[in-house]
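User: Before I run my own analysis I want an independent prediction to cross-check against. Here's the chain; please return only the structure tokens and, at the end, one sentence I can use as a sanity check.
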Amino acid sequence: MRFLWLYALACAGGAIAYVPFLTILFPLLVTRLAGSQDIAWLAYCAFAGAVAASVANIAFGWLSDRTRSRVPWIVAGLVLSSVLLAGFGRAQSMEGAIVLLIVWQVALNMMLAPLTAWAGDCVPDGRKGRLGGLLALSPAAGALAGTLVTLPGLVDPAQRLWVVAALVAACVLPVLVLTRRPELPELMTDGGQAMPWGGRWPRRTVARMWLARLLMQLSEAALFAYLYFWLRSLDPALGEARTAQIFGFVLFAAVPASLLAGRWADRRGRPFATLRMAAIAGALGLAVMTFAQTVPVALAGYVLFGVNAGVFLALHTAQTLRVLPRPGRRGRDMGIFNLTNTGPSLIVPWLTLAVVPQLGFGALFAILAVCAALSALLLPRLDPSR
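Assistant: Structure tokens:
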């Protein structure tokens, strides 16, 4: 359990490394450098960063597989990404900022890819529900860090990047320093993970898990990007501060919900049933949002969706480690699963532009509700205990 908690702290550090920077600090830098062209430049940066992160995550996951060692890659990525993060304070042009962003994404994923795969080497299947519950701390930690570094008077704007780098190091280093190598031999044997009742997890199970996560991530990414605009369409008086408070409440409410759901999944031996329930509840929340005409109803639907989406995504990461067919390629395979995190940022803007101007947000939420419901249908139907 000590390793689980310290590992969850390290993953929270991974979120702190990019959430405050990509959502607040980097957009401020783009505005300073690009002026009135900041929105267009930010779109270019988001695309370049997503591509770099996707490729680097797969590459460094594969390299940590080949070298049969995760920790050196985590340490190297931590050091390089921290130094590069602080370097953004000296950026003088948008061209230089984009190049630095790409290199930083590569360094950051040098840390994140082996860190994600490391849990598959160390955490037995009977604890993967708890692992998933603890992983829900990561988004909340990222949001909290963004709030702290932007509080007026608390941190000098010129020092914000260094503070973020220091927070990341404080979160990631304990699991590397205070634990020995806890890899379990039965989780490191190549040739396929055995199912508890004998046999092997079919490869189609992995493909269905990938697609189920992608569909849920599409819904989550759309709400992340357009929640403010939707709420303003219902009540123009609703400001950005209230929207940020609502978003933060959902992130933090997902933490205890994920912890409880993860413990229940471990005790009952029904990890996929837990994921299905979260996906169905998320689809119901989106259905409520589809027909919402008032802010209270809209918020009730969003809270129902947001909390259950947080539970689904946190627990899904842990249960994916259960079904990957080749432990010797775990890092590479988790990098491929990471495409479900970066891909939606490239899909959602086009989906929104195709639907919302003609049909409104209700039609978009109806499509997303179908996506969430399909996630539930795609998940494996047979739990290990059955």
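Sanity check: Confidence is low (pLDDT under 50) at residues 191-199.
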